[in-house]
Amino acid sequence: MTSAADLPAAESNFPLDLDAKHQVSLNPLQTATGVYVTVHGHFYQPPRENPYLDAIERQPSAAPAHDWNERIHHECYRPNAFARVLNDRGEVLGIVNNYEYFSFNFGSTLLSWLERYDLEVYQRIIEADRNSCARLNGHGNAIAQVYNHIILPLANERDKYTQIRWGIEDFRSRFGRDPEGMWLAETAVDYPTLEALVAEGIRFIILAPSQAQRCRTIPTDEQPVTQWHEVGGSQIDPTRPYRCFLEGVRSEERGVRGSEINNGHPDSRLPTPDSRPYIDIFFYDGPISRDMGFSDALSNSHHFIGRMGLAIRGDRRSAQLISVATDGETFGHHKGGTEKTFAYAFTEEFPRRGWTVTNYAHYLSLDPPTWEVELKPVTAWSCSHGVDRWQDDCGCGGGGEWHQKWRRPLRNALDWLRDRLIDVYETAAKSLFCDPWLVRDEYIQVIRDRSVANVQRFLSRHQSHPLTDSERVDALRLLEMQRHALLMYTSCGWFFEEISRPEGTQILRYAARALELAEDVAGVQLEKEFINRLSLAPSNVEFFGHGAEVYRQLVLTAQVNFQQIAAQYAITSLFRKQEIGSNGQRSTVNSQLDRFSTTHCPLPTPHIYCYTVNQLDYQWQRVGTLTLAVGQLELMSEITWEKEELVFAVLHLSGWDFHCCIQPFTGWRSYNQMKEQVFESLQQASAAHAIQKMIQIFGDRSFNLQDLIAEERHRIVQMLSQESLTRLDLLYTQVYRDNYGVLMAYHRDYLPVPQELQVAAEIALGSRCSDLVRSLCEEIGDRDTWEHLAELEAVATEANLLRCQLKLPEVKQSLEQLMLRSLWQLLHGDAAVEEETQKIERSIDIGCQLNLGLSLARVQEVYCRCLHGQIIPQCLQILDGDVESRNGDRPMWDLTQLRYLLRLGQKLSVDVGGWLDRIG
């Protein structure tokens, strides 16, 4: 942790080729002078969504988080959006958006997830690019990325261009500008890839020093011949940019494509003596970048600054760049707390040394390349064998004795499938679209916005004739087939040592979805041959044996169809009806729901993942312990617009036992007859008789709790368990009360406490805590609030006295939300300052007493915004004697109220001591 007290005196021990007076007169943001620093973070997570649900399912290995995206988000992405600068007492001096100082790329699929999951952080990332544009002469920190992280040198030409175009369009739609640079997956590059980048208007890329072969100063009229220097052993100087000339791209072709991508503005990189096209390249400093990931270079800002300073070259050039790059997840996920190191370095350490924090595009505008470079033929930053890590058993990424002989057969199988899907696409799409491959390149516009209006506009723009409803479905199926054919090449599938890992399984799921869509549209059956080819990919896991078995065990079992979605709706409806009345509004269970009743669309139209459910009819009845529901649904995929009308009957016997049957809707007459027969069978109050009738009508195929999508299954299991858990809570509470004196005697005499009594105490006190916090979170009066807080304090005291280890994750989360809500009301409402600050302070104390490990992060962020935007300005008003002034809509607090607010800051570990001293 870095503190202000450790701040060294400003100094610069690295002389440059400018006298001090001249240096002071130059603005390093306008003129290349001095030392520049660029820290690039490659922020990326592989797409993890179930192809049928468009959502990430729970990943137990990421516990306690729901999935790895969520876990890494809370360890890395969010901390860097709200990075703390601390004083020597560990108090917050300020909160820094590190993305305003990083050079960064975010994978498009990761940004899509962030936009859904944490809009605040997503907006901080977009805002950071906008602010860096304002600071750095219009050059933002963000650069684009190849869309879903495929290895471009291994892609066919069409996929190469689509990946680049999707990455550019996704970037433009988010950041509101064209990207100047692009991050290549694994920095994998060859010259055809460079040609594609140049053709699409990309100005620069970032590579590892090991990817350069030789370099020289660019010949000029004054020096027409310069000497090449071999740098193939990572010896290239990373403190300057380089220009890579491309012989293979015709300048006139490049000019047309460049003007298209830049909205009609011709590419400005043409004025070279021989008009050769080129792309500029930055090579990051390899040793420092490795140290950031594998040493203590990021343990505090002094170590980091010291390590960066060693890279400055004393050759007296006017300007030079210290450039480092690594996986962005290093900054908090792999190395916890490093966001603080960067926040302090960016805002305090670098400026004190006179170093300018910049990004590659800005530096390029100040100091264009005077050197050119030639690259090795095919390279990447994480494989010493070119790009064999993604196609061969090269040893990279291996684990002990495990081989990677599966890599080549897996790529061969996917290449075979890709080529078959091209045939399907071209044959089917030419009857629907004017230009099938242009529509694929622009399909990113639909991926970014799947609203009905946007999809209709998109199809209308590309259709070869007015499409019928069924043709629209086929059009979207074809485009989704191609999207999944691209997703199945996500590089992570080959990166590690085993095909059956989640990454390999995920790309096979994309392949399975593409196969299914091809059969739906064209009736082409490719799966059998694909599985045969996968059987040539040997697994290291004896249980699987080869890739075909991985496909059968882990991929086919994850497929979802309309009937499963209908079964999920049917079973969960038995629980929703207990919360929602017949008028569609949430209510308690009432007597009307205990009678035989028929309601049409009693529940709000829900979404189940990426499916819209339109309930056309619903009827249910309860007889003893049996509950039966019958209904008719129209399901529509929000991705492909496919629709199905289905009818269901679901019988809940008791506990975990469900019997659900689904069949297509064939007409109201047959549906009403079915409904009448099934409900008549229930009148005998015999589960066996009802199930027999359902089998007679629907057939043997049925669904139970195990067939539900895991997330919903877990939710229902918890609901079904709640009644039993409530009874157990009451039982343990009674045991605790009856034996309280005995339990105290054990603790008083330091005797080993019987496990049964200790567990009873922990469960009883934990249950009481949960009930009290639940009551606190409800809308209640102030008297109740103080009573509940006092009771919580008493429970905490009792738990500590009895040495109870309470596990209360839901209490922790609820208290954090309660404090956040109270602070928001305090700062933006009419709440009484003294009472609300005391509530928050007491909540913090209770969290400490209960050992909850409360996170004050969100509360600190809200408080710090208010501190600088409202509290301090009003302190200044009062100190200046301007007590009548009101600044906009800000509340006007008096001196006593401001003291309470500042003391709250102290409680939140925010540095406000100076202001408390000033106002007395």
TrEMBL record:
InterPro entries in the cross-refs: DUF3536 (IPR021923), GH57_Enzymes (IPR052046), Glyco_hydro/deAcase_b/a-brl (IPR011330), Glyco_hydro_38_N_sf (IPR027291), Glyco_hydro_57_N (IPR004300)
One of the GO BP terms on file: carbohydrate metabolic process
One family name in Pfam for this protein: Glyco_hydro_57
Molecular function per GO: catalytic activity
Keyword Membrane: no
Domain Glycoside hydrolase family 57 N-terminal residue range list: 93-354
Keywords: Carbohydrate metabolism
Family: Belongs to the glycosyl hydrolase 57 family.
Protein name: DUF3536 domain-containing protein
